[in-house]
Amino acid sequence: MTEPRALLHIDWTACDGRGLCTEILPELLIRDDWGYPLVRGGGSDVPVPDRLLDSAAEAVALCPRLALRLLPGG
Ligand code: SF4
Questions:
Q1: What whole-number distance in Å separates Cα of residue 13 and Cα of residue 23?
Q2: What CATH number is attached to the domain comprising 57?
Q3: Which of 9, 20, 36, when mutated, tests ligand 1's pocket best, judged by the most ligand atoms within 8 Å of its CB?
Q4: 44 CA distance to ligand 1 middle (Å)
Q5: Quick one: pLDDT at residue 1?
Q6: Which of 24, 68, 69 to mutate to test the pocket of ligand 1 (most atoms within 8 A of CB)?
Q7: If you measure from the C-alpha of residue 32 to the centroid of ligand 1, how many angstroms do you get, rounded to a whole number?
Q8: Looking at ligand 1, which atom is closest to the CA of residue 24?
Q9: Does residue 50 fall inside a structural domain?
């Protein structure tokens, strides 16, 4: 299995839980009862499949709290 090219990192201290990222990346993120994103499968660095790289970049760009970053994978 090949390593993902990117990881989506969530800075929980910056996130204010409005859940925009969960709408852009429902394949990777779900919302908890308060609107905060939860990673499907757990953790805070989410492997991003190639087909979702554009959506992940959009989520990073639109996060109002600058709480998301794309990190090199692998
Ligand atoms: S878009 Fe940003 S601030 Fe909003 S829930 Fe996602 S990580 Fe948190």
A1: 20
A2: 3.30.70.20
A3: 20
A4: 13
A5: 59
A6: 68
A7: 12
A8: 1
A9: yes
Distance from the CA of 11 to the center of ligand 1, in angstroms?
A: 9
Residues 6+ apart with CB under 8 A from 21: 10, 29, 37, 59, 62, 63, 68
Domain that holds residue 53: 6-72
Total domain count for the chain? Answer: 1
55-74 mean pLDDT: 95
- Provide the 3-class DSSP secondary structure of residue 23: helix
pLDDT digits (tens, 9 = 90+) for 18-48: 899 999 999 999 999 999 999 998 888 899 9
- pTM for this model (two decimals): 0.91
- For residue 1, tell me if it sits in a domain: no
How far, CA to CA in Å, does 4 sit from each of 36, 39, 52? 24, 16, 11
